[in-house]
């Protein structure tokens, strides 16, 4: 079943990342942490995609960040305050996630 596949995939992900915290300095990568991180990445991807779908926005590939004139950002933020963080926050995984 699909849920069994998901369990196997997340367990394999946990196994593949075992010990990575020794290099990254982070915490051990459990199934729960991997799932939470993936959920956060999907949320971020959807938000950046919304920003880039609006008129006047572009993409700075060198810095992995959405770009627009100040007035365009201000209009967007008035309508969607939660998207304001993408004005200064890069998202280097955008194109990789778009390929998934």
Walk me through the structure.
- This is Myb/SANT-like domain-containing protein.
- The chain has 100 residues and is mainly alpha-helical.
- Helices cover 58% and strands 6% of the residues.
- A two-stranded antiparallel ribbon has the order 1-2.
- β1 and β2 form a beta hairpin.
- The longest helix is centred in the middle third of the chain and has 23 residues.
- The protein is elongated, with a radius of gyration of 17 Å.
- The mean pLDDT is 93.
Count the E strands.
Answer: 2
- Strand fraction equals 5-15%
Proportion of helical residues:
55-70%
Give, in order, the helices and strands: HHHEEHH
Q: Major beta sheet, specifics?
A: 2 strands, antiparallel
Average pLDDT value?
93
- Strand arrangement within the widest β-sheet reads 1-2
- Shape estimate: elongated
Low-confidence stretches are none
**What is the terminal separation in angstroms?**
21 Å
Radius of gyration: 17 Å
> What is the number of domains?
1
User: Total number of helical segments?
Assistant: 5
Class derived from helix and strand content: mainly alpha
List the helices and strands and how they pair.
Elements: H1 2-17, H2 21-24, H3 31-53, E1 58-60, E2 65-67, H4 70-79, H5 94-98
Antiparallel strand pairs: 1-2
Domain Myb/SANT-like: 4-75
Organism: Collybia nuda
InterPro entries: Myb/SANT-like_dom (IPR024752)
Q: What would you say about this model in short?
A:
This protein has 100 residues and is mainly α.
Tags for this entry?
100 residues; mainly alpha; two-stranded antiparallel ribbon; 5 helices; 2 strands; 58% helix; 6% strand; elongated
């Amino acid at each position: 079943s699909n849920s069994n596949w998901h369990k196997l995939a997340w367990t394999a992900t946990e196994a593949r990342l075992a010990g990575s915290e020794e290099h990254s300095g982070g915490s051990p990568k459990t199934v729960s942490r991997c799932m939470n991180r993936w959920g956060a990445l999907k949320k971020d991807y959807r938000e950046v995609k919304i920003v880039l779908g609006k008129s006047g926005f572009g993409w700075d590939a060198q810095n992995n960040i959405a770009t627009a004139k100040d007035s365009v950002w201000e209009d967007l933020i008035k309508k969607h305050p939660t998207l304001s963080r993408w004005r200064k926050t890069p998202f280097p995984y955008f194109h990789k996630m778009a390929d998934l």
